[in-house]
Amino acid sequence: MAPQARxxxxxxxxxxxxxxxxxxxxxxxxxxxxxxxxxxxxTFLSVPTRWLHEKEAFEVVSEDVSLGGMQVHxxxxxxxxxxxxxxxxxxxxxxLTLDTVVRWVRHxxxxxxxxxxxxxxxxxxxxxxxxxxLLHASDYTHGGASAGAGGVSAVTxxxxxxxxRAVEISLRSLRIRTTRTxxxxxxVMFAIWFLTxxxxxxxxxxxxxxxxxxxxxxxxxxxxVVIVSMLVAVVGITNTLxxxxxxxxxxxGTMKCLGALDRFVVELFLLESLxxxxxxxxxxxxxxxxxxxxxxxxxxxxxEHVALPVRALLExxxxxxxxxxxxxxxxxxxxxxxxxxxxxAEAMRTEV
Amino acid sequence: MAxxxxxxxxRKSTGRQEYTVVCRDVKKEYALGTQTxxxxxxxxxxxxxxxxxxxxxxxxxxxxxxxxxxxxxxxxSGGKVFIDEVDIAQLDPFxxxxxxxxxIGYIFQTFNLIPVMTALExxxxxxxxxxxxxxxxxxxxxxxxxxxxxxxxxxxxxTELSGGQQQRVAxxxxxxxxxxIVLADEPTGNLDLKTGREIIxxxxxxxxxxxxxxxxxxxxxxxxxxxxxxxWIRDGAIAKVEERGKMKISVGAIGE
Lengths: 352, 256
Prior knowledge:
The complex is a heterodimer of chains A (352) and B (256). Chain A has 352 residues and is an alpha+beta fold. Chain A folds into 2 domains: 6-23 and 30-153, no CATH class; 163-349, no CATH class. Helix content of chain A is 48%, strand content 16%. In chain A, strand 2 (34-40) and strand 3 (43-49) form a beta hairpin. Chain A is elongated and about 90 Å long. Chain B is α/β, with parallel strands linked by helices and 256 residues long. Chain B has a domain at 50-68 and 91-248: Rossmann fold. The longest helix of chain B is centred in the C-terminal third of the chain and has 18 residues, at 193-210. The relative contact order of chain B is 0.17. Chains A and B meet through strand 1, strand 6, helix 2, helix 5 and helix 8 of A and strand 5, helix 2 and helix 3 of B.
């Protein structure tokens, strides 16, 4: 088949449509799944589809991969030789177009959906990256589920949460729950303040000792203090975050009823906890570092010739921020993940 | 030889399946310590497309459990539930999410609105999951809210709405993506008599106008009048199935 010029391609905004035969047999039947099968240049791609929106324009039915193409029902007559552009909307990638040519047309008088079915084939210049995008577009892949040909199945259907919406929802949630947000980030801030203070005290102390302004104290005690402050941070932050997520289990169950995938819920909570954690950790680490420098500043006159251990201080500041972020995220992600994985009915009846 | 194909949208409703929801011997057991509670003991039922079904029974009879099974909100311990002839236990999470997003709408006794979002945001949340853009979902959400009578309260939060209004928002949310089935768990449970009646009339209007299959689990006797069929459930099993046409209801009592 000769490649058609793009400008003469027909445009059809088409998508996929469900049909099923009456159920009479065992649960897993081959034709209970209708596949969009595309094959070109040795790549096999199968898109299992079960339910699709009632308002879609054509049905894709193909179990027959020997055609080297795709079998499609259109709702309007097509003729062999027509060039067709199929547009799929792939989550996170936008519209994907495939230019194909109708190779054959068959009339199916008994079909409930359309009068004709057409076999399509890729043009010679079908883009591999589009096929790859379809392959990778799904939220999961079946390992070798396609009928024996050893391909990868991709699901392109509209259940997704665009990142912008997720950010919007998370930030709005934080903004409205002002008191809770402030309280939680205050906990993070104070815990990280304590941690950073303990971490930064060591180099400042060391510098003061070298200037022989303070006497040398036990090193082991320093280490213990740091460990205790770390434990305080861990327990305090994770407990607070866990509680603030657990009291929203019912909300999580509701969102799953509205069609949220597990990972949407986790994503929303991740964004919220990142925002909280950033603000709390940065503020806490900053205050902690400044607090640690106070003994230095009170003796400023005597220490004019001794250098402030800036590098160590900044390193500890960084450690404090990272620790705060990590703990915040971990503290909120675990309960969110658990709640998202529950059946919605369980999540909605969980009492905290 | 190229011809232009116009994008075609097929709007005919395809009444192809006779039964939209089929339960086969559904069982549910909870383990409470050493004992097992049998919430459902082998329930089998079939529901046609476009019917208004009420599942009625006293508290603890298993109607909420049955509701959860039908809606795919929980897994049965035994038996199968088919929605449009596909066993929902065999769906992967993606398809299950799609089912809940596009095919089934849920209404709960406790409304379950997200408290930090306004009415409009609550209604448009399932549309966001369905992949609509703000240009599409904002007008559609407003229109759905208007159709339930809350056009002037789009930007009120649930705490600023009365119980009846919150339930209306919940109904609007369940209709956001034009589902084929609406499941209601005690929709009038937390409402007074007058508001309950309004909600029931609203559901009935939806059923008649749009042909949505409505399945409600309730113990509110006001539902009897509007249902096509009533499943009486007791102790986890269906005691009786009645058709509205064959019942005689007199004011003040339910007669046979």
